[in-house]
């Protein structure tokens, strides 16, 4: 599915292909601190076209991931798994009303008690996420 979006000020735009019709939520402490709540995102793989990179900042948030944002308005642009060319875009960045299905919640054991989603999803713990996505140790 073709998707596009832009930051609040419009200085960074993005075009990509959603790898599937699903969106996922991450409940890890970094995602919640970064955005004030769970990071709800779509998986886009490597084919992400960004216009306005001069207005974008990138923060290396861990050994295996980086997070991009607009330096002008602060909008979150993407989460990128280093070494895999896998990008996840926040679903709120996208234009229109794309039809995604809420499929998976990760770091479910890190989710605070003060919120709960009603959707039935696959739920992965921190250990399961690391086993599935983290690159092998060198």
Can you give me a brief rundown of this structure?
By secondary structure, the chain is mainly beta. The chain has helices spanning 29-35, 126-133; strands at 2-6, 13-17, 22-26, 39-45, 48-51, 56-60, 65-70, 76-81, 86-90, 101-106, 122-124.
Describe the structure.
With 138 residues, the protein is mainly beta. The chain has one domain (2-117): Metal Binding Protein, Guanine Nucleotide Exchange Factor, Chain A. Helix content is 11%, strand content 41%. It has helices at residues 29-35, 126-133, and strands at 2-6, 13-17, 22-26, 39-45, 48-51, 56-60, 65-70, 76-81, 86-90, 101-106, 122-124. The chain has an eight-stranded mixed sheet with strand order 6-7-8-9-4-3-10-11. A three-stranded antiparallel sheet has the order 1-2-5, with no helix packed on it. The chain is globular. The model has no long low-confidence stretch (mean pLDDT 92).
- The rounded distance between the terminal residues' Cα atoms is 35 Å
Q: Which structural category fits the helices and strands?
A: mainly beta
Residue stretches low in confidence (pLDDT < 50, at least 5 long) are: none
Number of domains: 1
């Amino acid at each position: 599915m073709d998707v596009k979006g832009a930051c609040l000020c419009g200085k960074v735009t993005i075009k990509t292909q959603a790898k599937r019709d699903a969106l996922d939520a991450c409940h890890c402490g970094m995602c919640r601190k970064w955005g004030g709540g769970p990071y709800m995102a779509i998986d886009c793989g490597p084919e992400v076209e960004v216009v306005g990179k001069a207005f974008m900042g990138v923060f290396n948030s861990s050994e295996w991931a980086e997070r991009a944002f607009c330096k002008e308005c602060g909008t979150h642009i993407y989460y990128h798994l280093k070494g895999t060319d896998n990008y996840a875009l926040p679903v709120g960045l996208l234009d229109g009303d794309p039809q995604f299905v809420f499929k998976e919640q990760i770091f479910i054991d890190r989710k605070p008690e003060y919120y709960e989603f009603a959707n039935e999803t696959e739920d992965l713990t921190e250990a399961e996420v690391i086993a599935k996505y983290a690159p092998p140790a060198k």
